[in-house]
Structure formats: C-alpha cells, structure tokens
Amino acid sequence: MAGVAAVAAGLVAPLPALAAPSPAANAPQTPRPSGSPEVLKAPARELPSPYTPNYVGGARPPATGQPPDFAYGAYQRGQYVTAFREATKRIEADSKDGAAMTLLGELYNQGLGTKQDPVKAAEWYRLAAAQGESAAMASLGLMAMDGRGIAKDPKAGRRWLEQAAEKGQPTAAYNLALILIGTGTEADQARAAALFRKAADGEIGPAQHGLGVLYLQGRGVPKDPSKAAEWFRRAADNGDLAGELEFAILLFNGTGLPKDEARAARYFLHAASRGNAIAQNRIARLYAVGRGVPKNLVEAAAWNLAAAAQGLSDAWLDQALTGLNADERARAERLANDRANVK
C-alpha cells in the first residue's frame, strides 16, 4: 500500500497510512472454501483524516454544566438563523463570551444561518481562542493546515492543535496524532497512541479505530489483539465504517475475542448496506459459501455486483456464481440496483 503521505507538504494529501502487519505464522487465519482464495482478508489499514480541501467540519461549542443556552440550543435543533441571532446578542452583552464566538465561527464556517465566509469564521475562532476556547483552537488549526480563511501555515496549524489538545479537545488530539504517526519515530508513535486514546475516550470513532490499529500492530503501544478488538467495536458503535469492518474481520477469525461467524456476518452486512465495497465483497463471499449466513447465491451475486460497481472485482466469486440461471441473475441485478439507490 502507499506509504505515509508527506507531512511537510501541509497534509493536503491523504494522511498517514498504517501498513498492514505481516501475519504471524501461528496467527488465526480466516478459513477458505475448498479451491478458493481466503474468504476474508483485512483491508489496508489507513487512518482516516479530515484534512481535505475546503474542510468545513470543526468546532462545536463545548458542553457545560449550565442549562442549555438559546443560541446553542437553536444550533442543535437546526435553527441556524436563530442561533446566529442569539449568539450575536450574547456577544453584545458580553464581549468575552468565547462560546458564542465559537458558535458564530462555526456558522460562518459552514454557511449555516448566514453566507459561508471562511475569513469571518477564522476571525471569530481567533477571538474565541483568545478566550481559551479549545474547540475554536482546533478549528483554527485545521484552517491553517488547509489555508482556508487564513494563510496556509502547517506549523501554526500544529501549534493550534497542540494548544487545543493540551486542553483536552478530542478532535484536536486526534488530528495531532495523525501528524505524529507520520514521522515514524518511536517517541512520536507513543505520543500519537496517547493522543488517540485521549480522543478515543472522547468517543471520536476514527480515533478509536486508529487506536485499535496501533494495538493490532504494536505501534506506540504493546501489541494486544484483545484491546484492538475492543477499540474497533467501540469505533463501530460510534458509526466508524473502518472500525466496523476491522471488528467484523477479527470477530470472524477469532482474533482477540471469541470467534463468532454469525455475529461477524451481521457486521459485514451492516457495513455493506452502508455502501462499503470491501464489506460488500466479504458478505458476498460468505453468502457464496454459507459461512455465518445461510448459503444464498442470489444474495452473493447481488453483493458481488454492488462491490464490482465500486471497482472491487473478485474473479473467484465471478467463477463461483457462473451457475446462476437467467432468472436468478435478473433478481441479483435488481437487488444490486436497489441497494445502489439507497442513500
């Protein structure tokens, strides 16, 4: 798989790829059907990243022990014009209201309740950061990395992320970990693992997946498949597709937790239904051989077609499904088309 993207290039390219480890000779392997390749094979494990051109996700006003305010309450309900108005009132009443400044920055950043304006978003984030708002610092870090709303400055972006992570901001910890994991040094990998853990404890799904990868590979932490499985499961519970897929693979193979093919198949099926091509291929293979699910060649063909439509072809499956008659092929095509149209 491709190596780590160049961090010095400003993190515009996809960020740190964690190469899959070479399997140990006695490591549990997925059984393969007679005369076929392995039913399952772990996908390339790449840590996802929000570093994409024109990234607009970011700050969220932090939760507090105070009763919900009108501004943030309106934001949560999707009433963005009201949120903008109420946040503005709060700042007029208190020029040091960092939470309201963060909210205005977010509204400008995403174009919610007002015209999208990254420059104004960065201005409000900067004012909020001056009041100690860690979520604003995290968003400023991403904007500096991307050169969005402010001058592109990876070093400044990292400083903002460092400050936010120091304050316990979980998304900042996650993004900073992605930067560190790309250096390849043992010290940075250990620190990246600690930052992933901080973000994972904040229920950031991609961070939970990333931490699971590190435990599976023994990078920055002692190798521990059981902990890897637990973090992949938590990532899956938080909707992280990569974590869901990894957990299904470990569950099917009995790596780090008791083997359970039927439960693994349910995870594969759920991820396949969400449009993941690898999961579609894996569940197709399971239907083809009747592992974890009842054997069903029409379902196998339908999921194989869905994966192939996304560029993931499988010569073994194509060969295994040659015995379908015209009616069965037509049914499989209808199922694949129906699933492709589900948004």
Automatic annotation (TrEMBL):
Keywords: Signal
UniProt keyword annotation of Transport present: no
Pfam families (alphabetical): Sel1 (PF08238)
Compositional bias annotation for Low complexity: 19-28
Spans annotated as Disordered: 19-63
Signal peptide bounds: 1-19
Domain of life assignment: Bacteria
Keyword flag Membrane: no
Protein name: Sel1 repeat family protein
Species this chain originates from: Methylobacterium durans
